Each structure stands twice: as structure tokens, then as C-alpha cells.
Amino acid sequence: MSSYRLRLPGPTAVPERVREAIARPMLSHRGPEFRAILARAEELLQPILGTRNRVLFFAASGTGMMEASLVNILAPGERLLIPVHGQFGERFAAIARAMGACVDTVEIPWGAGIDPAAIEARVRAADYRAVVVVHNESSTGVVADLVAIGAVLRDRPTLLVVDSVSGLAGIDMRQDEWGIDVLVSASQKALMCPPGVGLASLSPRAWDVVNRADRLGRYYWDFRKAAASVENDETPFTAPVALLAGLAEALEMIHQEGLPQVLARHRRLSSALRSGCEALGLARFASADAVLSSTVVCQRVPEPLPGGDIVRIMYQRHGTVIAGARNKLSGRVIRIGTMGSFDEPDILTDLLHLESTLNELGWPVEPGAGVAAAVKELAHAR
Ligand SMILES: Cc1ncc(COP(=O)(O)O)c(C=O)c1O
Prior knowledge:
The protein is α/β, with parallel strands linked by helices. Helices cover 43% and strands 15% of the residues. The strands form four sheets. Strands 2-10-9-8-5-3-4 form a seven-stranded mixed sheet, with helices on both faces. A three-stranded antiparallel sheet has the order 6-7-11. It has a two-stranded parallel ribbon with strand order 1-13. α5 runs parallel beside α6 and α13 (344-360) runs antiparallel to α14 (369-381). The two termini are 33 Å apart.
């Protein structure tokens, strides 16, 4: 194995500049140097989130932020509507049930998108505290139409809660324009950092709910404490100081490349990788009318092949770490991250390794077909 190539849909490769920032000497979490870092991270995140809201930071993984988003808005027994079309929608429903919320789901075939008309029918029929949506369903590679869902909720008291853990900084996000009330994300995906920083941003109408005295008990996750601290560019409890220094550096890199350019790179490269996989006989998992993710490429494994073997051989022979599935799609799909710090040579190498792996498993592929399809598409996109 010549190298280790981290090509998961998170955590993703961390650029040298970010690793250097993380390795700097430790700072006081209450001192002026760290406060400047936190303020800069917030300032650089706001355009990526598409918001003028304050940004709250936590030492947390994405799941922690999912939990935080719900515990701050719910009163005991309140109702939530959760569209489920993949593993992370299921997780949101499980978290909500663990909190004692009354959970209604909209069950959607995995691979299909969320139908905003179905959401509208449900919110007309019952009172929901919130509709809870996964922006980029990493288990299927499908993106939610937040513009349409936001429009459904705009003139209703029901909040829109969104997990953009695997979308933010790789897929367009406009929190304020789309009417997203609670938006949460995490550092280890398109934000090019190690896992460990969670973030949240809340609309004024979300704060009206969060500040009510009858909400669930909360302590570490209390957004009110975080909001009070952020006024001083601090966090209520010890911040992940080194990771936040890395995040600030990653955000500088994103803005140096240019946010529109970063998003276009994600679109162009994910599409070319998908075409390359299709040329090798791996069809896209998403249904024909679903909006395809720019941050994760999720492809079907041809019927006779065990998907787990593809993942294993990619790693053992080539050092290329991709994902399968840890849910009902186990063995049936492979998933490759197309987010954060990656470029053309990365996806072309993925395709070379995938071709060689498929050959080893006895799956007939025309030599170079995957790379050729991707290169052709990249040439057209220039
Ligand atoms: C869409 C989405 N939400 C939530 C999570 C959970 O994040 P974490 O593993 O950091 O807890 C993930 C992780 O892959 C994700 O892709």
C-alpha cells in the first residue's frame, strides 16, 4: 500500500495549512487571541451558512448537534414531523423519540427526494413544533429541496430544523433566504477539519421558542448559554481551541478559493466521478428525479458483487478508504466523499482504483472506461 487516501463522505482529508493551525501552541480559551479566532470563524461562516445570525460553537460531533437542535425547541410531548429517506433521517427520529417527543415520520423510499407537497399536507393536518430535515442525506446521496420546504413553512408557526452536517460548504446553503430556523453542522466534512466542532445558527423566530420557560431540561446543549457567551466571542464551556484554530484556517482557504468556486468544484467533480462510476457499471443509487448530492457519490453495487469486498480491496490494495453502508443498504452501495479538500486527480485516482478492484472481483470493465468518462465530462465543464 503506497499511501493512505481518505475518500470517505466524512471525516475528510485535512489540508496541511489546517493541520499546521491545529498544531500551534495552546491558547487560553478565555484570552484575546482565541476570542479573535472565534470571531473570525463566525464572520467567515456566516456567508457559507447564508445568514446574519450569530453562530454558536460546541465541542461536538454532528449527532450532538442534531440532539442539541431538538432539545432546545421542544416542550414535553410536543410533536415533530420528520421526513425519513435515509439513515440520518432515521437517526433524527430516534433522537426525538428518546426525548419523549411525539414523532410523525414521512416515510420515503431511500434514494428518492422529499416531496414538499407531502410535507404541506401533513402540516395542514396537525400542529407541529418543527419539521426536521436532513439537507444532504449522506446514506443515499440525495439533497432535500429546502427552498420548497421552507416556502411551505414560511407563514406557519412550525419551525424548520435542518441538519447540513454533510452539505455545508459543499452545497449551496442560504439559511435566511430559505427560512431555516435551526441549522446545525459539524467540522469534519466539507469544512475540511478533524471531527470535534459542532455549530448551530438560529433564526429570531427559533429564539422565541428556545427562550420559553416550558422547554425540555438542558445544560451542556443550552443554546441560551451559548448565545450569552458568543456576545464575548467565547463558548460557555472549554472550547475545542485547537480545532477552532483549524476551522478558522479552513474557512480562510474556502474564501480565498471563493465560495461560488468551491461549490462549483464540488458540483463538477461529483458529477464527473458519478459518470466514471456509471461507465464502470455502477449505477447511481438515487432515483431519476432526485436532486443528486455534490458531496457524496452513492452508487449501486452490481448484483453479483459483494459491496463489502469493493470497500475492502480498495483499502487493502490501494490505500483508498471509501465507505459502504452501515444500514439496510449494507453490501448494496458504495459511497465516496466528494467534499472539502479534493480535486481532479483525486477522483481520477478513485476511478483507477475502482476499475482495478472490479477487475480483481471478476467484474468485466473496459480498461480506462471510468477515467475516460470522467475526463470527458470535466473537459465539457471547462
Ligand atoms: C447528514 C449527517 N448527519 C449527521 C451525521 C452525524 O455526524 P457525526 O458522525 O459527526 O455524529 C452525519 C455523519 O456522517 C451525516 O452525514
